[in-house]
Amino acid sequence: MSWFKRKTYPQFWQNYLSHFKVQQKNELEAIRFCVFDTETTGLNTKEDRILSIGCVGVENFKIKIADQLESYVIQEHFNAETVKIHGLLKAGQLSKLEEEEVIIQFLDYIKDAVLVAHHAAFDVTMINNALKRMQLPKLKNKVLDTGHLFQKTKLDTAKEHFSLDELSKRFNIPLHDRHTASGDAYITAILFLKLLAILNKNKDLTLKSLLRSHKRIGLL
C-alpha cells in the first residue's frame, strides 16, 4: 500500500486519529460508548477472519437504536463448521464488502468512543489484526469488557469466566438474534447498562474507575 511505503497514513486513518486530539471526559453521562461484536470464521486470532461487525451506541445510560452499524465481509477464508453458530454462508444474499472497506466504515463509526464488548480482547484483537493487514497501527480507543465489569460487581466469585449466555440468563436478558454480530452487540449493550446500574449505586462512578486494572480473565 502506497501510504505505508511513504510512511504516511491515508486520509481515513488521519480522520480517525483527529478525534483523539481532545482529552476524553471522565463523567459517564458525557461519554459515547460503542458496544460491538464480531462474528468470525473461528476463535484462532492468528488464522481466523472477521465475517461481520455489529455495533450500537450507548449515551447517557441509554441505548441509541439509531446509532448503529452492521457490516458483512467478503471472506475467502471460511470455516464451514462455524456456520451452524453464526449462520453466515460464504455466498448468500447479504450485501458484503471487502475487509478493508468494512474496517474503514468501523473506524468512521466509532471515532473516539469507548469500546465495549463481552470478552473484548478477542474482538479487539480481530480488528487489530485486520488493521495490521492494512499496514496500519492498532485501535486507539479505550476498551471495557462486560466480563470484567461483572467481576467488579462481586455478585459471583465462584469462577472467573462467565459467558454472555450465562450473564444474560442471570439478568433476564432475552437472547434475540444470538450469534449475530448486531444481535450480540445489543444483548451486550443491555448487559452493560445493567452492570453500570449496579456499579453506580452511589452515582460517583467514572470512566477511570471502570478502566482501573483488574485481573485478566482470558479471551473466550
From TrEMBL:
Exonuclease domain location, by residue? 32-201
- Supply the Pfam families for this chain: RNase_T
Under SUPFAM superfamilies, the record lists: Ribonuclease H-like
Q: Which Gene3D superfamilies does the entry mention?
A: Ribonuclease H-like superfamily/Ribonuclease H
What GO cellular-component annotations does this UniProt entry give? cytosol
Tree of life domain = Bacteria
Name of this chain's protein = DUF1836 domain-containing protein
Organism encoding this protein = Winogradskyella endarachnes
